[in-house]
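Example 4.3 (complexes with small molecules)
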Amino acid sequence: MLEKLNEIEKESLASLAAIEDESALETWRVANIGRSSPVMSVFSQMGSLSKEERPLVGQRANQVKVALEKAFAEKQEAVKQAALARSLATEKLDVTLPGRPVRRGRLHPATQNLRRILDILAEMGFQVYTARDVESDEYNFQLLNIPPHHPAREMQDTFYIDTGETDESRKQVLRTHTSPGQIRAMREFSAANPHNPPPIRIALPGMVYRFEQITARSEVQFNQVEGLVVGENITFGDLKGTLSDFVRRMFGQNAKTRFRASYFPFTEPSAEMDVECFVCGGKGCGICKNSGWLEILGCGMVHPDVLQNGGYDPKRYTGFAFGMGPERQLLLRHKITDIRYFWGNDMRFLEQF
Ligand code: PHE
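Answer. The structure with phenylalanine bound is encoded below.
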């Protein structure tokens, strides 16, 4: 029996020495010091030994058991240390390295300027009203006094959507301006109260689309902000006062402005508003084509037919409207020479705003 214990100790220690990882170690533990391991079974055979042998074997079995347990604990620690050393070597982290820069996002310059315009208009009491990008020919043109074949259609070359529709009015287009929103808004407000439609003071922002050759000066899509004011006793004086105030808030208290007579089918009379050239201060330069002035918006008194189409009786109500391009304003203000930068998504351009 003592022989056998020596044998067990020798073999167990030998197999333990060869172990290098934790799972093999666990297997060894179960086999060599577990409940049904050889040493443990010696204890259960004690009953069959003689009175003389029993203490000797018992003592020796205990020694072997303690020795194996101690060897196991040491091995366990060694395996753990080795694993740690391995991970320290392979997962080395240099905490002194500088961090990777995090790129901060920002709003697109066109969005920034659009929001600025809306903020200023909001201060002046204009509420935002959004209308659809896909319009019918009727809303985009006809209800705004632009019948089929009217020469004014050539001012705004149009993207038609192929729906197979043959009825002219129901043809679908990508809106060429935000003005159809005027009709949508007036109809919505007047439908709610047909005999006594409420006054209106709204700003209509959004993308508009024109079927044009893309060049440094023209794009197929750009934003517009439309303004519409309708009420009793609204005059051209209100238009001038409101827009002059807007321009001063937008471009500074000293911004000089002028109105020039113009033509739009949906306003009468119509005008365009100029501001003194930001670049040369009115002296004349390449940006203002030596005129000293930059055109920044179109405007006019809402045409009686348009009021009528919106459900507002033109005998009782008058109004004014205006439309401007946020990108165009930026273009002028920052002397951007090519409008294609706006949708080109070149970081070198976008990062400057
Ligand atoms: N819709 C016109 C355009 O796109 C601008 C405009 C709006 C003019 C409202 C007058 C009144 O050019």
